[in-house]
Specification:
The protein has 18 helices and 8 strands. By secondary structure, it is an alpha/beta fold.
């Protein structure tokens, strides 16, 4: 099959173009930066197209791997030139705008079969998750062939019925987890210390939280900004997280232990005690031993608020396709682990420990700033917020975290 990638110089397109080239598919790529394309694919029998229109004319399967805000316009410019009976889709993390544009501008005989690899470009597809969304298929559909191509990389394939359903599932996973972890990263920046150097975070769970915060910050801020600003569900999910945070902090300031314990127990009951215990077992396998969870001073406010958001939005990670992908599964396991821990200890820390209150204050401040950015639709503001935290940690620290979390994700995928 001739497979074309528009945005072929990007990391995800390059990853899949190379893998599928090794599988002996004919690969075509286009991008605005032709020199970068030539460097990226030097020595490979990959066709560098002169334009997106050329890639569309020549491809049996055309894949858009382009920034979320730019994708509809790129589709408008190139999709009308698709060859007869071609299939077309994209790698974007927000699907409604991509699919609307494909339906509007693709020829009527084109099949629209879009997809979402649930992993970053630093991970190989093997044992990861790949979502396929059949939007418009016909007789002699390429759907089965596309599924076979995906599975040939070693990735697991799941189906979602619509772009709208996809974006809701991604909001339940990506929006909430990214928001909490980016807020943590910025809070540490404002506090002026690296978490591994502070006594509050000297345990395995906090170490993993810090690693995944840095993993996010090691990646392309435009990708995360696109997800946060353009997912139609983002604002409501972020508002729920802030409401959960405000509710918890109001009880902390009133020293209302009864309400905090009741809220904690409600979350545990919603998520399921057996499910929390299962998460413990998975984490024990991941680390090959029991590990120290209990910080002497941490309140785990960010995870408490995530659990409360899950409950209020009706999200059970074990029932969510995206949370079954290893990168997001680890993040949900951490939330489960904490909620299955010593709630009395964490709540006492939140109410009585002055240093904990200081950390929680900056976390709340950070989350409030980020929420204002998302709710106002400030794409560039999100990128600036992201970059400040990334610069605070530094490239070397972020790269070390990316490598270590790659290893953790690959290990979890094999469990």
């Amino acid at each position: 099959m001739k497979i074309g990638f528009i945005g072929g110089a990007g990391e995800m397109a390059s990853l899949y173009a190379r893998i599928l080239h090794e599988k002996e598919h004919e690969i075509l790529v286009s991008d605005t930066d032709k020199e970068r394309l030539r460097q990226e694919y030097a020595g490979l029998e990959v066709r560098i197209c002169e334009s997106n229109k050329e890639a569309a004319r020549l491809s049996d399967l055309l894949v858009y791997s382009t920034p979320i805000p730019e994708t509809p316009e790129i589709i408008k410019e190139s999709a009308p030139f698709l060859r007869e009976n071609a299939a077309v889709g994209g790698f974007t993390s927000v699907k409604v705008y991509e699919v609307d544009a494909l339906l509007k501008y693709s020829p009527v005989d084109a099949e629209i079969i879009t997809f979402h690899p649930m992993h970053g470009p630093s991970l190989k597809p093997e044992n990861q998750k790949f979502i396929i969304i059949p939007v418009r298929t016909g007789n002699g559909s390429k759907l089965e062939e596309i599924e076979g191509i995906a599975k040939s990389t070693g990735i697991g394939v799941s189906y979602i019925n619509s772009a709208k359903e996809h974006d809701k599932i991604m909001a339940d996973t990506q929006i909430l987890t990214h928001f909490a972890f980016l807020s943590m990263g910025n809070a540490w920046r404002m506090l002026g210390f690296l978490p591994e150097g502070n006594k509050t975070y000297q345990n395995e769970v906090d170490r993993i939280k810090a690693l995944f915060t840095k993993r996010i910050l090691s990646q392309n801020p435009e990708v995360y900004a696109g997800i946060a600003i353009f997912n139609p569900e983002a604002k409501s999910h972020v508002r729920q997280y802030i409401n959960s945070l405000d509710s918890i902090m109001e009880s902390v300031l009133k020293e209302d232990r009864k309400n905090l314990f009741a809220k904690w127990q409600d979350i545990v009951n919603f998520l399921g005690k057996d499910e929390l215990k299962t998460s413990d077992k998975v984490l024990n396998k991941l680390f090959s031993q029991d590990y120290n969870i209990e910080s002497q001073t941490n309140s785990y406010l960010s995870q408490f608020a995530l659990g409360d958001s899950f409950m209020n939005l009706g999200i059970k990670p074990q029932d969510n396709i995206a949370f079954q992908s290893p990168p997001y599964k680890i993040l949900s396991l951490l939330v489960h682990k904490i909620l299955n821990g010593n709630s009395e200890h964490y709540i006492n820390n939140a109410i009585h420990n002055l240093e904990t209150k200081r950390h929680d204050y900056y976390f709340c401040k950070s989350a409030t700033v980020l929420a204002e950015i998302v709710e106002s639709g400030n794409y560039q503001g999100f990128i600036d917020f992201f970059k400040k935290s990334a610069e605070f940690f530094g490239e070397d620290e972020l790269e070390k975290a990316r490598i270590e979390t790659d290893e953790l994700i690959e290990r979890l995928a094999r469990i």
